[in-house]
Amino acid sequence: MHNLVKYNQAWVFHQGFSSDLATRFAAGEDVTLPHNAVDLPYNYFDEADYQKPFTYQKIIEWDAAFEGKEISLIFDGAMADSVVYLNGEQIGAHADGYTAFEMRLTGKLNDGENLLSVKIDGSENPDIPPFGDRIDYLTYAGIYRDVWLKIVDPISISNIKIETANELTDAKSVSVRCDLYNPQNLAVSGIVKVQMLDLDGILIAESENEIASNSATVSFSGLKDLSLWDVKNPTLYKMAVEFSSGACHDSVADDFGFRTAEFKPDGFYLNGKPLKIIGLNRHQSFPYAGYAMGKAAQEKDADIMKNMLKCNLVRTSHYPQSKYFMQHCDRIGLLVFEEIPGWQHIGDEGWKQTSVDNVKRMIERDWNHPSIILWGVRVNESADDHDFYTETNRLAHELDSTRQTGGVRCIDNSEFLEDVFTMNDFVQGQDELPYVNHGRIALRDQQQTTGLKDIVPYMVTEYNGHMFPTKMHDQEDRLAEHVLRHLSVLNASYGDDNIAGCIGWCMFDYNTHADFGSGDRICYHGGLDMFREPKFAAYAYSSQCDPSDEVILKPVTIWARGERNICGVLPLIVLSNADEISIRYGDTVAKNIKPDYANYPHLPHPPFIVTLEHFGAEGMGEWGLKWEGAEVIGYIDGKQVASHVFDRDPQPTTLQVEPDETILDDQQEVRVMVRALDQVGNVMPFFNERIHVELSGPASIIGPSELSLRGGTTGFWLRSTGGKGSISVSVIGERLGTVDVEIQAQ
Predict the structure, then answer these.
(1) Tell me: the pLDDT tens digits for 368-418?
(2) Residue 626: DSSP 8-state
(3) How far apart are CA 293 and CA 288, in angstroms?
(4) Which of 175, 182, 180 is nearest to 158 (CA)?
(5) Residue 661 and residue 701: Cα distance in Å, rounded?
(6) Residues 644, 690 contacting (CB under 8 angstroms)
(7) What is the pLDDT of residues 67-84, one digit of tens each?
(8) What are the φ and ψ backbone dihedral angles of 363, each rounded to 5 degrees?
(9) Residue 358: in which H helix or E strand, if any?
């Protein structure tokens, strides 16, 4: 039977590379995968530190279970240029950092110990995407995803492809193509048994078919009483496939869903119904750990995107991302636009062929995910290249006829070869937007950017970002303007039926090269910081959700009279999905404040813009008078549903330590957020003191144990190191004392 064994333990890591790989290196560091070759500081570092060779070694002991089997290693991802050796002999190479690869060991293993050596070159090799020119993100070296030992019979299942049809009828259909792995070209004469089940294991349909070649397709039709996969009800089913031919047996299973997804000239349609896309771009990087974060951290990012930010789509900028992230998007109903690796640059013919190969690897890995609605088959923001992109589109449609293609560009009038014109539109950053009145253009008409006579399927794939970088601790005026820029684009998108939706740049801040960012190796482009702590702009997205999902009430202020250039806090933006708010300022109350439909007529939930006129002659916090506290209250249908309180004299009173989870599996990461709060629970944005983390139990801290608060918050990740037990975490603040947290490892 198909046997995949996680092979992450007992690796030895070495700086550099030796030509003598027949024996173990004399010294090295014992590591567990996923592993980051160099843990960079939070900022102000030299990215060249990881742009060099490293070596991972591991002993493979011969096992009687290997006899008569096909043995291989599957690497889910290693950055960037990998060469694999067994007992000193090269057995394969993979020149790409973002796609999986398999190394066949059959017939090469000795009876006894076998030395596996993997050379990882973190250099930016100009022969492979995304390299060849400057790129606006880091590509951290290391074996940063899982490795698996695969033990199968001489003929096994290599992949299954599940395609649905008649999704919107009461009699749905599905086909399953089973492709075999048969490296010895043995004769095939056997049976493929396919079972369709719900996720509770209840059988829905089954069939047995003869197979006499390396591929066979099984179909089911007339399937009744099944649910559609949707962003609000992401129903999944399981397809279990068993193969047998003589003494060879194998079985695999994968989840799938019934849904239709189509971009049309008048927008995006999911299951035949229009859905305005609200999304953000995501890099797969983390502070200190780089790319090397496992299943739990990947799933948490998807949860943040869907459940905190209330987005319905994520773009995997600018490369295929973790299978755990994709699987969780399936489970929670988060749409995905997945694209091949690259950033602006197109290389020579060999480079292009590698990029074409990446299209194949991406689609064949991920074609069963119902969350994926669009394949990105163009290098992000690259120039037109007719022959190259004709081929990437042709191949994508050949491999998967059920999905459309897109190709993200930033060039007006770019050649349109894909199914969807996907455009990075940064027009809203060309001029300074006025603070409240958004009369200037936020998004251009699609025909202005496409240059086409006809309206076509069209989606904006980046906006804001580098046009207005914003830090957690920036002055309030800038933080408020950051909010307004996101709101203005969302409003424009909702108001234009010829735009399927918009994907903002980007989800969170990220480390970058010296050529980009704010001089400290950080691009502060996110709605969240690098620890996934929300800036005010994050609530521009979450406040658009229906209040039945969650009531959002977020005043865009730290409540300090002298923080803004204009002094005071007016005009005050309140982000909320309530239908009315009131504000109490000292003894003065402003009531019946309505959303600003005049400036944001298309948003589901426009912001509230509170001005001096709402307070009349009594005024609010004029300079030189006594400063007061305040309470903002949200109402729906006349009933209070939320409130937010500000103290007139905030003081640091609480060190909040909040782990995402309190129970961890083996080798699982958990984020722990630390916040300095005042007496009414607000973050203190200028409280930037140090904290110290002490840890005991089966876990380690990723990054340093001495941290500084930035914007009143910071965070760190813990990784369980194996075994059961209590993990005791003590966070020690210089002024706010010590907070202890217990996490259980199982």
Answers:
(1) 999 999 999 999 999 999 999 999 999 999 999 999 999 999 999 999 999
(2) P
(3) 10
(4) 180
(5) 15
(6) no
(7) 999 999 999 999 989 999
(8) -70, -40
(9) helix 349-366
Strand 273-274 with 663-664, pairing: unpaired
Element (H, E) at 725: strand 725-733
Q: How far apart are CA 643 and CA 641, in angstroms?
A: 7
- The contacts of residue 741 (CB under 8 Å, 6+ apart) are 657, 659, 662, 672, 728, 729, 730, 731
The first and second tokens of residue 333, run together, are 């109903």
Q: How far apart are CA 374 and CA 317, in angstroms?
A: 13
For 282-316, give the DSSP string: ----BTTTBT---HHHHHHHHHIIIIIS--SEEEE
Give, as one character, the DSSP assignment of residue 510: E
> pLDDT category, 612, cuts 50, 70, 90?
confident
Which has more pLDDT, 90 or 568? 90
AA identity, residue 17: F
Question: What average pLDDT does this structure show over 588-606?
Answer: 93
User: Pairing mode, if any, of strands 630-636 and 639-646?
Assistant: antiparallel
Q: Structure tokens of 454?
A: 């006809």
Q: What is the CA radius of gyration of the chain?
A: 27
Taking CA atoms, 125 is separated from 25, 94, 360, 379, 646, in Å, by 26, 13, 21, 17, 53
Backbone φ and ψ of 683, nearest 5°:
-65, 140
> What is the amino acid identity at position 570?
L
Residue 385 · residue 392 · CB < 8 Å: no
- For residue 722 the two structure tokens come to 């194996």
CB 82 within 8 A of CB 56: no
Structure tokens at 470: 């914003």
Residues constituting the chain: 746
Rounded Cα–Cα distance for residues 692 and 21 (Å): 42
CA–CA distances in Å: residue 277 to residues 272, 273, 421:
14, 12, 15
Torsion of CA 339, 341, 346, 348, to 10 degrees: -120
CA dist., res. 178 & res. 157, Å (int): 7
Cβ atoms of 106 and 71 closer than 8 Å = yes
Q: Which helix (H) or strand (E) holds 6?
A: strand 3-6
Q: Which residues are tagged catalytic?
A: 381, 462
